[in-house]
Amino acid sequence: MLTFDRGTAELEQFIITETAFDAQAEGGLEAIFCQGNGYLGQRAALEERYAGQARNLFVTGTFDRFHDSEVTELPNLPDLTNLTLTVDGVPFSMERGELVSCTRELNLQTGELTRRVLWRPPHGGLLTLCFRRFVSLAREHLLGFQVEVTCTEAGCAVTVESGIDGTVTNSGTQHLCERVKRLIGGRILFMEEETVQSGIGCRLHAAHTFAVDGCEAAVRRLPIMRRRYLGEAVSLPLQKGQTLRVEKLCCVSTTRDLAPTDGVALLYEAAAMGYGGLLRESAAAWAALWATQDIRIDARDGYDQVAVRFALYHLNIMVKKDDDRVGIGAKGLSGEGYKGHSFWDTEIFLLPYYTFTQPDTARTLLRYRHRILDGARRKARDHGYRGAMYPWESAWIDDGEVTPLFGGADIVTGECTPILTGHIEQHITADIAYAVWQYAQATGDAAFMDAFGWEILTETGRFWASRATWDEQRQAYVIRDVIGPDEYKEHVDNNAYTNYMAENNMRLALQKLNDPDLRHIADGLWLPAPDENGVIPQFDGYMALQAIDLTRYRHAESVGDIFKDYNLAQINGLQVSKQSDTVLLLLLLAERFPPEVRRQSYLFYEARTLHDSSLSKATHCVLAQDLGLDGVAYDYFRAACAVDLPISAPKSAEGIHSAAMGGIWQCVAYGFAGVRMVDGALRIAPRLPAGWRSLAFRIVWQMQPLAVEADASGVRVTNLGSLSVSVCLYGQSAVIAGGATFAAAAPA
Amino acid sequence: MLTFDRGTAELEQFIITETAFDAQAEGGLEAIFCQGNGYLGQRAALEERYAGQARNLFVTGTFDRFHDSEVTELPNLPDLTNLTLTVDGVPFSMERGELVSCTRELNLQTGELTRRVLWRPPHGGLLTLCFRRFVSLAREHLLGFQVEVTCTEAGCAVTVESGIDGTVTNSGTQHLCERVKRLIGGRILFMEEETVQSGIGCRLHAAHTFAVDGCEAAVRRLPIMRRRYLGEAVSLPLQKGQTLRVEKLCCVSTTRDLAPTDGVALLYEAAAMGYGGLLRESAAAWAALWATQDIRIDARDGYDQVAVRFALYHLNIMVKKDDDRVGIGAKGLSGEGYKGHSFWDTEIFLLPYYTFTQPDTARTLLRYRHRILDGARRKARDHGYRGAMYPWESAWIDDGEVTPLFGGADIVTGECTPILTGHIEQHITADIAYAVWQYAQATGDAAFMDAFGWEILTETGRFWASRATWDEQRQAYVIRDVIGPDEYKEHVDNNAYTNYMAENNMRLALQKLNDPDLRHIADGLWLPAPDENGVIPQFDGYMALQAIDLTRYRHAESVGDIFKDYNLAQINGLQVSKQSDTVLLLLLLAERFPPEVRRQSYLFYEARTLHDSSLSKATHCVLAQDLGLDGVAYDYFRAACAVDLPISAPKSAEGIHSAAMGGIWQCVAYGFAGVRMVDGALRIAPRLPAGWRSLAFRIVWQMQPLAVEADASGVRVTNLGSLSVSVCLYGQSAVIAGGATFAAAAPA
């Protein structure tokens, strides 16, 4: 069970603690406790080996395709976390001997992960162990590990074996071939491997130091080389009460990096600073980040504060902020799930956070979408369309569409289920256009628009014009045979989300293009209207589908439980949604729908949604808040936090859910703080959950940082920039000069 | 600790028992308890998962090369042994809850492996588990698994998940890409994969049945498909005392098989017989094999009997007796070590067993050497020689030399140690010629010689003639820059073993060829003569090397311990041998050396040998027995048995040592029974160890099976064939007619 510091000391609420060890829960914890810096992601696999560990180390952008039968993915690089500690001949394992206690703590403030263990070996004795590690935020190639061992009751003989282990795979797929393995200068372990298809050189350096009671120990290092492994072993006796400290400093670099790295020089420099010095340097970088990115919540339940900081932590380690050749993986760099590919998750669920808090990062991510335009044009051409049709899944800049073709088992036929998203889940093209426009509005970055943005908007607009077809009967342009955001419905016509977003996309293009055909199609596109109950039909014929009792699936232990009873073809005929679809539309294009339509549609679809996608809950939170369903909104916020940070067993074994992290920010900013862009203007209208006393955070608007503080009485906005900005607080418009503060009382 | 049935009931001494569970020892046990039939080898990885398991399934001949940077090897095929048993939500693991008892038994007589476990889950209750499995000797594509679970103290909810797991690799190298995964007819799991370079299709079928208290259970099967995995899960409640029996029958076939297999049809047929019926069928095949292959020893210590049967068991599952496209791997099909490659081990250590007990198998193996002649000619040509220079390591028939280029770490330089055996360990060419001749002499198989044998002998003879160079100073032909069998000495000149065996090879070629040049070189080849102490120098300059105290290395826990203090370049300068070298020569070409030279040379080198090769001990046993050092011989026999069947921790994690198994047969037949071919005649002269009351076994001589029974008083030989054979018993020559028995008393 995960626990959190619920003390009142606000700054202490940065700690996620796990006080038990359960091998079954390790997968999820490896992802939750994942560390990184945007360049690399290191899963929190324990140093010693357990069955089922995923010892993942990913470097952004190192995509490789193992074989024609697979799609490209981020390869799992050789493991650096391994360290075997043998005490009097018995390898340390928490499943051996007696585990007196085990506590793990991820400190979100410093980025350090600590594990403290009290262990009795099978043959007696008592050991105190402390494992620490961090991924440097100051030096993106650097990882540090430290292990301290104390024989508490009697002396013992300790052997440490540690190294670079290239036997890891991506669930069995091996992307790397061995190139070089050697020991440099008697001290630095060096392994170079190369990806089999993309030919990327991956270099790993590691160096160990050994100290007893603070003094460097004169040890004999025995190099160990075997297939795909290079390590060293050191044996030494420990007196009762003595503490052995092992430090393992590592450097990871690749030939695809923005700039080359001299791993040996880096490790020599790192060795001079030691684990402690390097950690302090990295913690300082974290402190600087938190200074602008923190969201402070004074809440009855400390979980809320920690969960939001947890989301911010992951939002800042999943993205390489200065590299426009890479997107954000659906699992960040925290697991093999979704292969490191980028989806619409980035634009709809993550970009709002970056656009509103780190516009430079948002620009990098949108420039990535510009860099993959050629692949999008190719995909459009291959499908017989014009303009740019974005890949459903994207990897390296010239990969184009990389969606796999098959998924899990079909319960009825016994065959693999084909994955159609790469062909017909097309709304991503409109989603990217939406995000470009949102960025442009929020930042006023005309240079970006001139160089990149308008090209994306016009090319995607052209795509939709070629995608729509004329329906003689309706006398309208229609979009047939798509998958909307709700992926439990395949081959639908006129999905409301898709059609409205496509129309929005064409309108954006028309701001630049004088194209009568495009205007004609935009004007004539079929936009599903609300029915007599004020409910917008999700797609043609939705209302005629069979409704079933969803209770058991909505309360199921795991997502996708309905597939144990129905296959996708059957689910296609039921009024059941995987995730928000029309509801999301009601959030993104809120101004297009009257309040009553939003309310009725929300209530209708909410009852039919399983939230089998991690994208769903935050959207429901924000919409419920918009509709004044405050208790429901808070419950959905908590559910959104629990996607990756549950109190009980974590379910993130394949990696954390990147988009859900962005969703948590949306719950707080869009939802409880009422931050929203309305007709190009900034609106702030906080209405805090009952258990929250205050909320403070920053956003950036028109490149000016604004500090927002809210409580039950109202909101104060301080412009930390130098230029004036216009804001609308609870409907009150105000121009706030640089350095000035404006306060507004909450409406009664 | 391994234990053995030491009862007097002779037929019960077929059981190897392990009564503890220690995850560290599992690797060795997986190899010791390996099952197979020559077509496939299945390591004894436990059904549930533990860190460090090697879930190896190999099919002979399916060689694949992952990448140019690696050499070809036997790929690890998708795992069939996996089966996860979850009891009230907790997956069964012997490292979880309380392991009350665990007993494993390999029955060498039937080929069945059984594990009985009494386990208390962490939350209470008591389970009785029995796991059984076999690899069919009657149907080479078939494997059977059975699990029985009884909730002894209270009812429980059980979930079984089992399938085909393609995430396994060869220490991280993945040879297979996914082709097909599907469920056939709702019952048969089917996975097809293909090797990436050699394009071999590998097909795995698996089907489960579930019965409670003997009645088929109506269960709901939930198919589970994910990357490289296909399985099914079944959940059901068990009442107190009820027994769930799961049977998993599997079929493995490849597109490289001698004949295609219909896996679905095979599994339907198998399902009708059930685990029990299939096991009985396979046990009957084993019984037929034991009827001719068993060696019965009435010994004071039952270990001797079991160890010899253990060797015979592995000698009969490591070879595909009817397929001349494949050799025997240095680890058989029991582990990844040596990549499934064939070495001189086959000809010098294994073939004597087959030649003297299963001449058909010996012929198959020698025809394999004939089929790879082209690769041997290519290697000779590439090295600038004539004739056929056999690869040091061989794989598929057209692979040629497949020795890897690098090994473990060099303690001094920190670099990988280059492996030179593929270039300069050349004696294998003469070893193959020796084995061909031995086979021809023992069988009288002129047809084989005409079709295959003479071509091998003449081509290899030609190689040596081109390999030798004229030494003006010595006025002799010399062979410079080789590695002899003692691999701790690289780049030596005139290695005695190599030169004598090369000369022997040329003499054999000259029986067919009238080639004056060849004769001139054979006559003029430098053959190191004994020194003044009667010791044959291992190579030029050996006697001048430094002698060091080897005590600590000879008593080291693991082999290769000397490399912790010296690198290979340094060891090259010391009088220290990895293994028998000149001593082996004294056995193979015994008639060439006077008894005193054999004795003095043996004593000299024995003191300088670390036995860091598994090939060494058996040779020392036989030579010690020849020299009348009976106690020493018995000690070496026990040491040879302990290579793979130690009483304490097993060391065969990378696979059993094939050659050592052949060595055990040589200890018994060549050593204690004194079976030897002398000048083309069969000699039998038993002299049993002190602890042995009697010894009985069969050999085949001139295609006639002979039953040999020996005790302290003498020997009885019964000719079970129809044609007369000549034998020499304790120096007494006799002709034994078909059906007749001849007895001879041991000399006083």
Question: Main attributes?
Answer:
alpha+beta, 18 helices, homodimer, 26% strand, 5-stranded antiparallel sheet, 748 residues
Summed up, the helix count of chain A is: 18
Average predicted confidence as pLDDT of chain A: 95
Stretches of chain A where pLDDT falls below 50 for ≥5 residues?
none
Please give the radius of gyration of chain A in angstroms: 27 Å
Beta-strand fraction estimate of chain A: 25-35%
Largest sheet report of chain A: 11 strands, antiparallel
Measure the end-to-end span of chain A.
Answer: 41 Å
Q: Helix amount of chain A, in percent?
A: 25-40%
Largest chain interface and its two residue counts? A-B, 51 and 50 residues
Any overview of this molecule?
Helices cover 30% and strands 26% of the residues of chain A. With 748 residues, chain A is of the alpha+beta class. In chain A, the strands form seven sheets. In chain A, strands 1, 2, 8, 9, 10, 11, 13, 14, 15, 16 and 19 form an eleven-stranded antiparallel β-sheet that branches. In chain A, strands 7-6-12-18-17 form a five-stranded antiparallel β-sheet, with no helix packed on it. Chain A has a five-stranded antiparallel β-sheet with strand order 20-27-28-29-32. The first copy, chain A, is globular and about 85 Å long. Chain A starts with a strand and ends with a strand. The relative contact order of chain A is 0.09. Chains A and B meet through strand 13, strand 17 and strand 21 of A and strand 13, strand 17 and strand 21 of B.
